[in-house]
């Protein structure tokens, strides 16, 4: 186990107004007294868990090539395969294959946690070495047990020799000068190179309707967006093959706002024209780079004056950038309509509500909030950054002995205090991409604590995502999180001093704290789950007001709700950020390779909370496994359907359901929420207008819309592929008669009514079963029946379905050896000893079944090549060194060879020339590689998610970004 800690303060750090000397002087020997939450004195958290070694081999499903391989990595036994794969491939430092490469989660956590402890001790955060040790152990425990995670830059950089950048979110600024614009290009490029994203507001740049000092017309911000877009498309984020993440904002009163709104609409029309002309315009296609403005999210910053003009049907003035005078008046409703039409057509622009954002601004005397990061959750001063961390809410759900549930508000608050302390310490040693960003961040110390797994928590507690009870619980948790964060910030201010900008902004900061407290007091309490959390939040806000008045605050900002893409997978979360569940059926990766389809673990918990008995739960879960939804599930009351509504499917949550959830949590956040509201393809422009309008009425800070299939630059759905194939197959009416096309397809050969068969009883790891294998009278194996467990159980149903699928495949000509090569060595429980002398050990029931079938029906040469031998053959190998029998032992059985030979199906004969016909090709069976693809197959729909540039699997939405469940790559904030 290696220990790497940060060295002496580097260049830009020494300029900190809250550096080591200042902090120690302010602390005057005080320091925090740390409290144990999970750990035991004298016992290290690592010693309380069971560790195991695993092999991580990640492949590209498209061509089978290996993307990443590291064997023998060490993780706790309760970590999932997916979490192990992502942490090993993304976060372990050192060249793969070298002795310097990290190979244990202990090394990774120690590298980060010991760096934090060392910086905390150097800067006077702890009252004693014992408190520093408690901090280290508690932080290690929380990370080890997936209770929370820092954002990805911390795992990438902290404790290494490279610059220790801890922030994922940046806001830049640009002024109305060529020098500033060129600086913008450079600064943005450096941030992209480091693997992060940035946002900025272009509204200071003069419009194309204004004059330059030389007398000519200005270019306008839209023209300069082209250069920045080209730069972002060229500089791959973090040296990887994914797009850079950026946000471009323009104020609604800018004279070029209409051109800004239409930029992506026009480009989308260009994409469609080029696609129809035969160019490759899919996301990642070689021709998509010829289209502009595709590397940024665009948002219009609207103010209350404009929204009131929309509401009343009045005119609205567009203002010159230098003088502020109105140079043009437009109909506010028409401009608002154009925004909605553009969002309907291509998902851009989003909307940001300027007056609401600045109403909650803690530091207005130092400048307005004009922009956000690419995912819209971080909003603060220009040239600033925010480091993020997110808590796994499911770790705080308790079940008592009577089966009652509660949210552990007390432990949650203690973990929030621990995490906020660590996040603030990180600013003491962090490096930043530019001097301006470093200066602003150290002066205001913006933090972004948040959470993941809200959707899973609500479902597990029997709350519909779109319900008053669900919103009350979400609001209470968010209020407690932010209130506790500011309470700890005030306590830190007493120890190491308030942030540098606090004195100038004290009145405004305390006003915003009062606004949060008032919103907490006014919130509606609903049931036994949220009421205690509200009570804890109320107490926390009272402490915030009291301690803030006395000490001030260490941090200008405390909380946001980020996408939690990669780190959500690291924590084994079912849902990301504030999002609901994607679907009720998901993939689970298995140790040793392969994956299996499972019903979400939260579904049984929800059914138990709703009062269903174990037998009913089993039947409902079996129905969900078969159908992918709860509609008509046996015994499930229709009034409980809404608890299981998801982001996709027949009972998808409405767009306003998402908006109302955002509104329930927004008053309790320092920043905003990364979230996109998906609407169906049938949604109208009027519906999008209403969503944007209600977002303003409900007090949101930002909002984005995505209409299904509105963009061309995305993977073609199955429906589109079929339509395209039909178009290509159809003969043109004006062309000469097309040559006859015959496409061969397999023909199913059914077994006769009477067929020979073998029935085998077996036991695998204590699980008993029966297998019946029936053959064609003259042509090998044709069907398999499997009987496991009691009739009606999930296992019995799955084995029935599996045997039918295998049987149909063999009747269409799939050779038995293909199944044997695919299913042997698949590992899952039950596994272990069998009662078959030829197969003494099996890694799973499926492994045993196909080994037995190979022994019974495959010729020796075929199964020997697959490493499958009988007990007699293995004994012969021990005695003679060869598995094959000697010539004297062989008796030629012609009929037996015919039985075991692989079956070949002749293609159908060509139709007579006088009767030309086109035989439609049977589409290849779909194969799912992620939960998104599985949901599409289950629900018969297509999600507009891009393919992962790293491993090729379809990504799923996480906030305003996308995350790959296969390798953890994200399209934005990590």
Distance between the terminal alpha carbons, to the nearest Å?
A: 27 Å
Shape: globular
Query: Which parts are unreliable, with pLDDT below 50 for 5 consecutive residues or more?
Result: 1-29, 237-242, 714-740, 890-922
Classified by CATH, the class of the domain at 173-210 and 220-366 is Alpha Beta
Biggest beta sheet attributes: 9 strands, mixed
With helices defined by DSSP (H or I, 4 residues minimum), what is the helix count? 30
Strand segment tally: 26
Helix vs. strand class: alpha/beta
Specify Rg, calculated over alpha carbons: 31 Å
Specify the helix fraction band. 25-40%
| Known CATH architecture of the domain at 173-210 and 220-366 | Alpha-Beta Barrel
The amount of beta strand, in percent, is 5-15%
Oligomeric state of the chains in view: single chain
CATH topology tier name of the domain at 173-210 and 220-366: Anaerobic Ribonucleotide-triphosphate Reductase Large Chain
């Amino acid at each position: 186990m290696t220990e790497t800690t940060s060295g002496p303060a580097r260049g830009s750090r020494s300029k900190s107004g809250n550096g080591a000397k200042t902090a120690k002087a302010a602390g005057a020997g005080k320091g925090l007294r740390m409290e144990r939450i999970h750990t035991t004195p004298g016992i290290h958290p690592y010693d309380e868990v069971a560790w195991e070694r695993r092999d991580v081999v990640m492949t590209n499903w498209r061509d089978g090539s290996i993307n990443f391989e590291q064997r023998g990595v060490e993780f706790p036994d309760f970590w999932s395969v997916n979490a192990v794969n992502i942490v090993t491939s993304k976060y372990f430092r050192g060249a793969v294959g070298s002795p310097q490469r990290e190979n244990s989660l202990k090394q990774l956590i120690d590298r980060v946690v010991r760096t934090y402890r060392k910086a905390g001790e150097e800067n006077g955060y702890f009252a004693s070495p014992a408190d520093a040790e408690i901090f280290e152990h508690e932080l290690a425990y929380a990370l080890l047990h997936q209770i929370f995670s820092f954002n990805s830059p911390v795992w990438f950089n902290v404790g290494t020799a490279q610059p220790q950048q801890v922030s994922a979110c940046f806001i830049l600024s640009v002024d109305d000068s060529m020098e500033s614009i060129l600086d913008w290009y450079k600064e943005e490029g450096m941030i992209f190179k480091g693997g992060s994203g940035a946002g900025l507001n272009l509204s200071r740049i003069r419009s194309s309707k204004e004059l330059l000092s030389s007398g000519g017309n200005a270019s306008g911000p839209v023209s300069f967006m082209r250069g920045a877009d080209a730069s972002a498309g060229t500089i791959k984020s973090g040296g990887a093959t994914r797009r850079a993440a950026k946000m471009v904002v323009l104020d609604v009163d800018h004279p070029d706002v209409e051109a800004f709104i239409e930029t992506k609409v026009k480009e989308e029309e260009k994409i469609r024209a080029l696609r129809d002309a035969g160019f490759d315009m899919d996301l990642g296609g070689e021709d998509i780079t010829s289209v502009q403005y595709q590397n940024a999210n665009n948002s219009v910053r609207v103010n209350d004056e404009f929204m009131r003009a929309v509401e009343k049907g009045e005119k609205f003035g567009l203002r010159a950038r230098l003088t502020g005078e109105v140079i043009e008046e437009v109909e506010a409703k028409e401009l608002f309509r154009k925004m909605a039409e553009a969002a309907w057509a291509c998902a851009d622009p989003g909307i940001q509500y300027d007056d609401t954002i600045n109403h909650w601004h803690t530091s207005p005397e130092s400048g307005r909030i004009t922009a956000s990061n690419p995912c819209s959750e971080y909003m603060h001063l220009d040239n600033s950054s925010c480091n993020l961390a997110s808590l796994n809410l499911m770790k705080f759900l308790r079940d008592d002995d009577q089966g009652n549930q509660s949210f552990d508000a007390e432990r949650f608050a203690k973990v929030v205090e621990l995490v906020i302390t660590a996040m603030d310490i990180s600013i003491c040693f962090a490096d930043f991409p530019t001097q301006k960003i470093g200066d602003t961040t150290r002066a205001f110390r913006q933090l972004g604590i948040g959470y993941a797994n809200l959707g899973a928590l609500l479902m597990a507690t029997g709350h519909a995502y779109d319900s008053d009870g669900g919103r009350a619980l979400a609001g209470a948790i968010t209020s407690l999180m932010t209130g506790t964060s500011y309470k700890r910030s005030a306590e830190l201010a007493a120890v190491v001093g308030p942030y540098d900008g606090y004195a100038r902004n004290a009145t405004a900061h305390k006003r915003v704290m009062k606004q949060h407290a008032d919103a907490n007091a006014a919130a509606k309490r609903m049931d036994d789950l949220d009421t205690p959390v509200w009570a804890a939040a109320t107490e926390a806000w009272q402490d915030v007001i009291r301690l803030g008045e006395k000490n001030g605050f260490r941090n200008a900002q405390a909380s946001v709700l980020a996408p939690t893409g990669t780190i959500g997978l690291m924590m084994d979360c079912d849902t990301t950020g504030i999002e609901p569940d994607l679907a009720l059926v998901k993939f689970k990766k298995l140790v040793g390779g392969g994956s299996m389809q499972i019903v979400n673990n939260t579904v049984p918990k929800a059914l138990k909370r709703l009062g269903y008995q174990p037998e009913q739960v089993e039947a409902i879960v079996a129905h969900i496994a078969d159908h992918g939804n709860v509609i008509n599930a046996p015994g499930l009351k229709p009034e409980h359907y809404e608890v299981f509504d998801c982001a996709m499917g027949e009972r998808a949550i409405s767009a306003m359901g998402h908006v109302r959830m955002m509104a329930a949590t927004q008053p309790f956040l320092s920043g905003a929420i990364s979230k996109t509201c998906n609407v169906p393809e049938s949604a109208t422009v009027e519906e999008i207008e209403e969503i944007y309008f209600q977002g303003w009425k409900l007090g949101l800070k930002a909002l984005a819309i995505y209409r299904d299939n509105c963009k061309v630059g995305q993977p073609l759905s199955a429906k589109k592929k079929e339509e395209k194939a039909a178009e290509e197959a159809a003969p043109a009416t004006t062309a000469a008669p097309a040559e006859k096309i015959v496409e061969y397809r397999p023909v199913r050969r059914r077994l006769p009514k009477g067929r020979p068969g073998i029935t085998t009883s077996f036991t695998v790891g204590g699980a008993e079963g029966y297998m019946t294998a029936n053959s064609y009278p003259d042509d090998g194996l044709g069907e398999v029946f499997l009987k496991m467990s009691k009739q009606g159980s999930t296992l019995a149903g799955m084995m029935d379905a599996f045997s039918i699928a295998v049987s149909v495949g063999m009747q269409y000509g799939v050779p038995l050896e293909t199944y044997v090569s695919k299913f042997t060595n698949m590992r899952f429980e039950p596994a272990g000893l069998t009662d078959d002398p030829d197969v003494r050990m099996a890694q799973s029931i499926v492994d045993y079944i196909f080994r037995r079938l190979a022994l019974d029906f495959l010729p020796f040469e075929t199964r020997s090549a697959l490493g499958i031998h009988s007990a007699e053959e293995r004994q012969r190998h021990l005695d003679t060194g060869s598995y094959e029998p000697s010539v004297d032992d062989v008796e030629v059985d012609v009929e037996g060879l015919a039985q075991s030979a692989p079956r070949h199906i002749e293609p159908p004969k060509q139709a007579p020339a006088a009767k030309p016909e086109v035989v439609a090709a049977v589409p290849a069976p779909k194969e799912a590689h992620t939960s998104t693809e599985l949901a599409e197959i289950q629900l018969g729909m297509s999600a507009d998610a891009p393919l992962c540039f790293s491993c090729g699997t379809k990504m799923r939405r996480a906030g305003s970004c996308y995350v790959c469940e296969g390798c953890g790559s994200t399209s934005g904030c990590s």
